[in-house]
Amino acid sequence: MVKKDVVVVTGATRGIGYSVAKDLEMDNQVISIGRQKHGMEIPGEFFRCDITNEKEVKETVKSVINKYHRIDVLINCAGVMLYNDLTKATIEEFE
After folding, report:
1. DSSP state of 70
2. DSSP-assigned letters across all residues of 10-54
3. CA-based max dimension of the chain
4. How far apart, in whole angstroms, are the C-alpha atoms of residue 52 and residue 62?
5. Number of helices and strands (H, E) in the chain?
6. Which CATH code for domain 6-94?
7. What are the beta bridge partners of residue 29?
8. Cα–Cα distance between 60 and 20 in angstroms, integer?
9. Which of 11, 14, 18, 84 is the residue whose CA sits 20 to 30 A from 75?
10. What is the pTM of this model?
11. How confident is the model at residue 58 (pLDDT cuts 50, 70, 90)?
């Protein structure tokens, strides 16, 4: 039996992240990360996590490692909106 890669996809509940996770789910163990489900079937196993929250990210990584013992691939498709003019953005908004 060939061992499947454990692939974590952030932003996997819609848009590009959803498409990437869906394409990868047949040959890999996909872990879909998102703030919330958006009413559609999420590829792989869903873990709720807001990637702008460092504590949630650490807890989610720990949960994935505890269950699957590893993460082979991380694909970051999560989008974060900047609701300010780029020239007026603060360091905190970039962080």
Report:
1. -
2. ETTTSHHHHHHHHHHTTTSEEEEEESS--SSPPSSEEEE--TT-H
3. 54
4. 16
5. 3, 4
6. 3.40.50.720
7. 6
8. 20
9. 84
10. 0.81
11. very high
